[in-house]
Amino acid sequence: RSVTMNDLVPLCKFKKAFMKMDIEGNEHKALAAADRLFDAIDISYIMMEWTFLNDYLLQSKPKEDFLYAKQMLRFLEERDYVPETLRHAPLNIYNMNKWPNLIVWRKKTAI
Fold first, then answer.
1. What single-letter DSSP state applies at residue 3?
2. For the chain, how big is the Rg over CA atoms in Å?
3. Which residues lie closer than 8 Å to 97 by C-beta, 6 or more apart?
4. How many whole angstroms from its chain centre is CA 64?
5. Is-above-0.70 flag for pTM?
6. What is the rounded CA–CA span in Å between residue 79 and residue 66?
7. How far apart, in whole angstroms, are the C-alpha atoms of residue 19 and residue 45?
């Protein structure tokens, strides 16, 4: 059995966090089981590699990864995250193939 992000909630003794994800193209799978973590903790920024996810979305394959990646985008949008470069320049959600390798998802309420 794998440990999910939701399994971490009882262990977290803090209410605010910055998240850095580096799990070689599996960020979308990790976020698929993270709703309770995001409800419990105010995560202002999420840094992640974009290369693998971009490939999944552009090529629509493998099918499972494509669906998880689309689900991840909905998850982040529903929680008011916007994509940015590491220097906080906004990224166009309709032009993901031009995004840099490393991106940040910033919660709209974060400074």
1. P
2. 14
3. 54, 58
4. 17
5. yes
6. 20
7. 6
Sign of dihedral through CA atoms 53, 58, 62, 67?
positive
For 38-84, the three-class secondary structure string (H helix, E strand, C coil) is HHHCEEEEEEEECHHHHHHHHHCCCHHHHHHHHHHHHHHHHCCEEEE
CA nearest neighbour of 106 among 94, 69, 86: 86
Rounded-to-integer distance, Cα 111 and Cα 108, Å: 8
Give, to the nearest 10 degrees, the angle between helix 51-59 and helix 63-78: 110
d(CA 27, CA 80): 18
Which H helix or E strand runs over 19? strand 16-21
Which amino acid is residue 23, in one-letter code? I
Query: What are the mean pLDDT values of the chain's consecutive 10-residue runs (111 residues total)?
Result: 93 96 89 96 95 80 81 94 96 90 95 75
The answer to whether the beta carbons of residues 102 and 86 sit under 8 Å apart is yes
Side-chain-side CA neighbours of residue 67 (13 Å): 3
